[in-house]
Amino acid sequence: MPTDFRDGRTYPRRGRTPLGGFWWLARLADKGRASAAGTLHDYYYPCPIDRGMMAQWGVKPAQFDAMLSANADDTAVLAWALATIPETKRDAANSWLLAEYIENLDRQDREEGVTG
Questions:
Q1: Does the global pTM surpass 0.85?
Q2: 87: burial class by Cβ within 10 Å (0-12, 13-18, 19+)?
Q3: Which of 56, 87, 100, 116 has the greatest count of CB atoms below 10 A from its CB?
């Protein structure tokens, strides 16, 4: 997935696009990789939603960053998530995201040109 968002037309994946049942994980990985590469542009990492999802999962930002450094692709990120985050926390985090941030998800979709 692209992690250079400096052109203003390339975006992190949608927050509601699941990676192995984890909402926000794909977007978080995209943003974390871009932050490490210096190509985040005008996104924030970790933003309040990033921090909230990590807290729901029981993961600290430094732990997530270290995992990204060691795991270059989504298959490895998902394997880490499945081994680290219990299913109950995954499901609670997904519910929390929808309950607390549905308007943000909708706004992101509009701003990033997502339809349907």
A1: yes
A2: exposed
A3: 56
